[in-house]
Recover the amino acids of this structure.
């Protein structure tokens, strides 16, 4: 950095002397390499006239202007070669700001536009439009980031940030002088969508898409749709029965003509791009034929009808994951009575292939096939929504609370199953150690959330406060004379009617102890638990003896998030959740066009927020489909055939399989499938013959930027 | 390192204060028992107090670092890693070694002082607690400890006091992170107790502090003993025949502390308290006299009658 | 900092505790504590995990959470003159469990270091210093133990500074470098005459 600064300063003084005549000379020099390339490659290139660049410096209120000397930057920009016009404005992105650009282009016959403002991720589209409205090709626009990468990080270094802004503008101008007209390609969009994950988010998104007339593939890795919500007993703050409000949706999904439901299935591979995703789905062998599949095999009137005769005879007993292992299941099973679709599934990891189920199923249905293998299905979709949900943080890692060491320490999800009428105890909350009804119950909030130790999660899991309040209510509903204690740091009841719910539960008798639980010890005889904390409001260390402890364990991204991320080319944020395109303004989009996020896979959400997010994602995902075609950024690579030696090394390097070798005039040359190319530049950077032209990031353009940076404007 | 045929490892044996000056059996048992397990403990000439982390750390951490560094330098000059038998010493010697290795500013400060006595801390050695050497397969391991037993301590119910400074703070302790995994409910010492033929017993809140540390024993003896008393109540409930520890300072607090508790609170426990080295010595056939068990404040007789 | 106008001194003294930033608070205190403790003391969110973990808390008025609060607010005088400061047994249970990854134990140690600079220190800490200055050991040998050592086949004095007193000089130089012995002697004399 120090090295670079010196160069800048030195050259600045020099420039004072030469600036008057310099532009003309440079013009001639800089233009030299472009035509050659243009002639061979750039298809839409117009005849190059003298570059006349307009530079527009944004104050962004005080975001930029507060940390640098705008007049100095402006004065400097005026000295740069090819610069024909310089202006500044308080908010360049505002309508008046855009008008400044529009007018300047016309008045000064500009050939290129540089806006020095925020990140192109925010306003590149805005200024491209402004450039277009001024009568130029929108790709004649270049952005200099002087906010995120400058004023915000060098807030207290006015001189330094001013110099850095000068550098950024000089570099952008150098590129803008060499920019060419580019014309985006449009590609048709397949009129189908895919939703991955069929919890409440995935179901809602699929129902919305289907209702909008879009064929939707709903992929679920489990045997049934419904997800986490189907494991819950009641929902806050309305106290609706979770299953009662969920099952109508599940039935709708099962019935919808536009939804092709694939349970016990996983996405195996994704190829292509927005509008044209080719998705391979692995249908895991479930060992049981649906009526449809049976019919396809010529077994008329056969296939699974959900009678359950097979389950009765199966000799293998395993813990049921849906019931958090608190109830047994067989090797052939449905994990709860309300599964959709009602098709039995064989857990081949535990099946001993004794064949008793086959006999029980009988020769009419012939639904069971113990030799079934995984199948692969290919579908084509225009857009995809990821709704892959979450896992519960393995709270036994926080050793101090003794989960898995003390029988009467349970998690909230276990509590849901124990209090649920369809659960393992028929809705009777009992202590796992002795089956007794607990009278004193402590809820440990923030169990593994808001934890910076590296063991737990640094974020707030967002719905634990509310469901713990609900749990306290359910105890008062079912156990007369019970006492609940909520051990909390803050009660976060931020949603509609949530604070009112907090009021109600306090009114019902819940005691709130403002202290994070330090540790829990078990009385070895009674199996009661001693909860240690600091009642910070009383300023008193507390040893609270209770019958049952419920840990409101943090939520965490699904274990296979990384796989999902790679399949769909989306990113993760620091905390491991899938990354949205913009946290506020594009919460459902991702950095990959055509791929959207719904529900908790993007970050912790309660049910209302999850459903809202799902509807947002469905709406966003339907837009390209309804439009029927999408524009692709014209950043694709191009082969300069005269220079191409046909070595083919680039073909294997391409991460998007966009390149191939073809015969042309008796020799092999590389060819780019433009729609597949993402313009990453891997091939262009590598090509030993310099035969690949990267549109909008062409070698002469990049070299000009580097020169402008290193030489500080010198030639 | 020139090695005696049977000694696979050689360590500079850092004694500290309480082991050699109050419970010499810990010293003699460590030397003899470890030798049988292929570890030679060589005297660390001229070592001093570690210095006491509670006392010195509270007054001036710079002095604490410099004093501990002097002890480390003595071992560096011998070109030997240090082995020690006390959690308090581990806090001083291991932790200062760790901090100095990873922080140049601290190291420079310390060396400025050491220069006055013609010494320089270089950061060339490692520090181990003997309990760590015994448990870790890399050095000895539980199986070898079990194999060395000639007089299994059958029928004795032995509870473990882990103490604090060997295992906590968890985030700093490499040994603890790699081998022991947690500080809330470790069981590795119980494995070592079982290897001697005794029955390890669990008791309520076993990871609680003995109450002696941080200078509290000297500052407010009644407060300090009140913590010890809580542990003794829990140990009595668990019907332990003896308590074993890996820290002579904890041992002092439990052993002499019982006499003080008797005087101050009027409660009698008579719970024998033995350092694991003493226990290991017994199991390898050393006599109670060879171990100086008669020097203990609380008679070990009832326990010895069970196991001998 | 502004004094309430017109109240008599007695009332003024009573009302003083309402104000965080009073004459005896020092914004530099937090910085000093952080520097010595090498932990992120300012990140405490007062959850109480530390006090809930503390073996000293249930049997005294010692509240480590309060000391963390005083560090955050720069209440130097209040922290350093509180006799509870010396009730931490340094068991590090709070440090193991702190969800903000702070080492409250080391914050206490830092405060004790700062207290010592103001001659606030219990005498027993100084007596350990004096013992080590003269013998190299905090708990020195005695004749009963020497006899026992001999019986166990050990040297009468352990091979430490006890057996090699020539090493004590170096220890004294280190302690003198920090003027620790002189300060200890002075304070003990002031207290005990």
């Amino acid at each position: 950095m120090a090295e670079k600064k010196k160069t800048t300063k030195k050259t600045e003084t020099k420039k004072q002397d030469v600036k008057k005549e310099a532009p003309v000379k440079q013009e001639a020099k800089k233009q030299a390499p472009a035509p050659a390339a243009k002639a061979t490659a750039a298809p839409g290139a117009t005849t190059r006239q003298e570059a006349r660049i307009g530079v527009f410096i944004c104050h962004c209120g005080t975001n930029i202007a507060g940390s640098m000397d705008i007049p100095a930057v402006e004065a400097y920009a005026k000295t740069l070669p090819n610069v024909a016009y310089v202006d500044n404005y308080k908010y360049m992105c505002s309508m008046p700001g855009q008008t400044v650009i529009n007018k300047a282009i016309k008045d000064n016959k500009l050939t290129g536009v540089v806006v020095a403002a925020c990140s192109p991720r925010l306003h590149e589209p805005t200024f491209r439009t402004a450039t277009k409205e001024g009568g130029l090709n929108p790709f004649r626009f270049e952005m200099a980031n002087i906010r995120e990468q400058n004023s915000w990080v060098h807030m207290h270094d006015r001189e330094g940030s001013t110099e850095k802004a000068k550098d950024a503008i000089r570099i952008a101008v150098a590129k803008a002088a060499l920019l060419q007209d580019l014309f985006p390609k449009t590609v048709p969009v397949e009129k189908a969508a895919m939703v991955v994950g069929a919890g409440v988010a995935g179901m809602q998104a699929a129902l919305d898409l289907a209702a909008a007339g879009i064929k939707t593939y709903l992929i679920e890795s489990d045997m049934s749709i419904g997800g986490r919500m189907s494991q819950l007993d009641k929902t806050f703050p309305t106290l609706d029965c979770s299953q009662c409000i969920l099952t109508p949706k599940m039935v709708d999904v099962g019935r919808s003509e536009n939804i092709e439901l694939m349970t016990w299935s996983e996405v195996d591979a994704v190829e292509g791009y927005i509008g044209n995703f080719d998705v391979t789905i692995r249908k895991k062998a479930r060992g049981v034929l649906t009526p449809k599949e049976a019919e396809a095999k010529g077994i008329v009137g056969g296939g699974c009808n959900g009678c359950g005769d097979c389950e009765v005879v199966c000799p293998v007993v395993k813990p049921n994951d849906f019931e958090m292992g608190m109830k047994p299941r067989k090797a052939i099973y449905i994990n709860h009575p309300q599964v959709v679709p009602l098709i039995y599934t064989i857990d081949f990891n535990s099946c001993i292939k004794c064949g008793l189920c086959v006999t029980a199923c009988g020769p009419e249905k012939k639904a069971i096939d113990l030799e079934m293998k995984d199948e692969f299905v290919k579908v084509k979709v225009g857009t995809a929504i990821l709704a892959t949900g979450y896992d519960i943080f393995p709270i036994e890692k926080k050793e101090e609370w003794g989960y898995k060491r003390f029988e009467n320490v349970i998690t909230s999800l276990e509590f849901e199953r124990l209090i649920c009428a369809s659960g393992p105890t028929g809705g009777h909350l009992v202590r796992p150690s002795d089956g007794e009804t607990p009278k004193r119950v402590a809820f440990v909030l923030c169990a593994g959330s808001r934890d910076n130790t590296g063991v737990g999660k640094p974020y707030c899991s967002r719905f634990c406060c509310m469901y713990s309040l609900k749990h306290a209510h359910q105890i008062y509903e079912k156990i007369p004379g019970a006492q609940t204690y909520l051990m909390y740091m803050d009660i976060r009841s931020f949603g509609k009617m949530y604070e009112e719910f907090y009021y109600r539960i306090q009114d019902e008798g819940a005691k709130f102890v403002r202290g994070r639980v330090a540790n829990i010890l078990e009385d070895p005889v009674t199996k009661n638990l001693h909860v240690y904390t600091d009642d910070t409001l009383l300023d008193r260390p507390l040893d609270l003896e209770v019958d049952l402890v419920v840990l409101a364990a943090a939520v965490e991204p699904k274990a296979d998030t990384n796989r999902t991320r790679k399949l769909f080319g989306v990113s993760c944020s620091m905390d491991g959740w899938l990354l949205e395109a913009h946290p506020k303004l594009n919460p459902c989009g991702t950095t990959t066009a055509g791929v959207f996020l719904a529900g908790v896979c993007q970050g912790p959400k309660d049910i209302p927020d999850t459903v809202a997010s799902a509807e947002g994602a469905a709406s966003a995902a339907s837009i390209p489909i309804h439009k029927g075609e999408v524009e692709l950024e014209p950043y694709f690579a191009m082969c300069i055939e005269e220079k191409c030696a046909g070595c083919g090394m680039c073909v294997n390097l391409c991460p998007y399989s966009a390149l191939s070798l073809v015969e042309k005039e008796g020799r092999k040359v590389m060819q780019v499938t433009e729609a597949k190319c993402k313009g990453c530049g891997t091939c262009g950077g590598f090509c030993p013959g310099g035969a690949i032209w990267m549109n909008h990031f062409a070698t002469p353009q990049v070299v000009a930027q580097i020169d402008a940076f290193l030489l500080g404007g010198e030639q | 390192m020139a090695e005696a045929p049977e000694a696979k490892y050689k360590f500079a044996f850092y004694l500290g204060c309480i082991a050699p000056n109050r419970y010499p059996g810990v010293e003699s048992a460590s030397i003899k028992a470890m030798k049988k397990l292929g570890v030679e403990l060589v005297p660390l000439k001229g070592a001093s107090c570690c210095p006491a982390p509670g006392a010195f750390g509270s007054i001036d951490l710079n002095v604490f670092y410099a004093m501990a560094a002097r002890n480390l330098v003595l071992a560096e000059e011998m070109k030997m890693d240090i082995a020690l038998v006390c959690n308090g010493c581990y806090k001083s010697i291991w932790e200062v070694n760790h901090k100095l290795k990873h922080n140049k500013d601290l190291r420079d400060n310390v060396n400025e002082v050491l220069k006055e006595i013609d010494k320089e801390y270089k950061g060339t050695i490692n520090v181990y607690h003997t309990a760590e050497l015994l448990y870790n397969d890399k050095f000895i391991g539980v199986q070898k400890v079990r194999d060395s037993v000639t007089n299994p301590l059958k029928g004795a119910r032995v509870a473990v006091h882990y103490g604090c400074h060997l295992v906590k703070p968890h985030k700093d302790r490499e040994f603890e992170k790699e081998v022991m995994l947690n500080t809330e409910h470790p069981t590795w010492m119980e494995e070592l107790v079982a290897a001697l033929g005794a029955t390890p017993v669990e008791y309520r809140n076993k990871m609680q502090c003995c109450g002696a540390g941080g200078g509290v024993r000297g500052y407010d003896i009644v407060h300090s003993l009140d913590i010890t008393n809580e542990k003794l109540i829990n140990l009595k409930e668990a019907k332990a025949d003896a308590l074993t520890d890996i820290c002579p300072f904890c041992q002092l607090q439990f052993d002499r502390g019982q006499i003080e508790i008797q005087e101050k609170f009027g409660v009698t426990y008579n719970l024998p308290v033995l350092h694991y080295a003493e226990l290991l010595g017994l199991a390898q056939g050393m006599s109670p006299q060879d171990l100086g068990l008669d020097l203990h404040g609380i008679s070990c007789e009832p326990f010895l009658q069970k196991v001998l | 900092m502004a004094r309430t106008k017109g109240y008599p001194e007695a009332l003024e003294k009573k009302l003083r505790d309402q104000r965080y930033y009073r004459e005896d608070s020092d914004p530099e205190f937090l910085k000093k504590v952080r520097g010595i403790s090498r932990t992120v003391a300012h990140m405490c969110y007062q959850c109480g995990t530390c006090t809930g973990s503390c073996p000293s808390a249930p049997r005294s008025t010692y509240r480590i959470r309060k000391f963390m609060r005083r560090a955050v607010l720069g209440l130097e005088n209040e922290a350093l003159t509180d006799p509870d400061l010396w009730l931490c047994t340094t068991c590090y249970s709070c440090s193991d469990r702190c969800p903000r990854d702070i080492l409250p134990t080391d914050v206490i140690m830092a405060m004790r270091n700062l207290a010592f600079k103001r001659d606030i220190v219990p005498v027993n800490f100084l007596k350990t210093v004096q013992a080590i200055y003269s013998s190299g050991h905090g708990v020195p040998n005695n004749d009963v133990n020497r006899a026992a050592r001999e019986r166990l086949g050990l040297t009468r004095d352990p091979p430490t500074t006890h057996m090699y007193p020539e090493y004590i000089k170096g220890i004294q130089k280190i302690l003198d470098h920090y003027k620790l012995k002189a300060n200890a002697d002075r304070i003990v004399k002031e207290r005990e005459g």
Observations:
- The two ends of chain A are 21 Å apart (CA to CA).
